[in-house]
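Table S2 (continued). Query chain:
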Amino acid sequence: MKAAVLKETSPGERRVALVPDAVSRLRPAGIDMLVESGAGDGAWLSDAAYADAGASIVSAAEIYRTADVILTVTRPPSVSELRAGQAVIGMLAPLADPEFAAALAARGVTVISLDGLPRTLSRAQPMDALTSQSNVAGYKAVLVAAGEFGRFFPLLITAAGTARPAKVLVLGTGVAGLQAIATARRLGAVVSGYDIRPTSKDEVTSLGATFVELTSVGSAAGEGGYARELTAEERQAQQEELTGHIARQDVVITTAQVPGRKPPLLVTEDAIKAMAPGSVIVDMAASALGGNVTGSVPGETSVTGNGVTIVGAENLAATVPTAASAAYSRNISAMLLHLTRDGALAIDTSDEIQAGVVIAHDGRVVHEGVASLLQPAQPQSGQPQSGQPQSAQPQSAQPESAEGGPGVDGPSN
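Corresponding output:
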């Protein structure tokens, strides 16, 4: 089987799907690697490094013509060149754009998306690209905030005076949020974290941060540990109390996302107006669907009339390309090996992992969640879809993980 790595062409995308170290690990499974010339340039990985590892350096045209499996970080640059029988593996976000998956299915392309991985399975952890990339993004979000903040993060006592430590609040304590907390703590800030899930308290405090407990709302935990839907009165009371906490912070980092849906609004206009001049907000959920912060724009940094800097953080993992690529390479290699039998791709959606990640096969969309989005009038079974939280509530101020749902594990520190 020939597997291939294309050069990513999305604006600002510097990651590569596979690093040279992975090439030799795939060969024993009967997988020969093709790498587009220049694919690793953004992550400082040369063609020579891939060739030394045993890969063939070829053109994109040859990859589309001869590869059996194409490995990507995001979407392949040229859908029109994909042919029937090929497979594409990457983070393809089919829940955000089900028509894209349908278009590839119509071309006879097998679509495999790592962001549908059922993350509660322990054997799936080596394939968990959302976690690995969120770890990188949470780390970089703090560095971005520190770069925009006009003062020090740590307590400093010098001959020129004493600088108090920065106060940092992280909203949403999934993988990205916990990594942001850990990083801000390493930089010496006084850190607190908030999440709708009361069970997050132990994770936050284990990192040396303070867990923010809102007294205005009782337990928001619903069946199975997922966040229940709050009443309108509870949402209003929660938002007002959260606004008071936000106003006392120097830096706020928000991480709450729901795949394919508008992120919950966590930092309102009133909260921003209550913050002191020089404060910084980093919105990790900023996207075309919206963000966690009023006025945030993906890829842009703005300053409000009262002097608060709002960073619409977009694709932060791509700004740490070498580390992010190395982690992602391990994830996609593990997935490819899981799907390979006797040197060929073996699709079997009865397998729990494949049921979550295989979006299209044999000319049709086979993933239940994506298929239902393509047919919105079709009656729903009432069962949770593969890769989706059972009860996410984007309309309320309920921070979730930056990876799309509650209940994920924290980073290893």
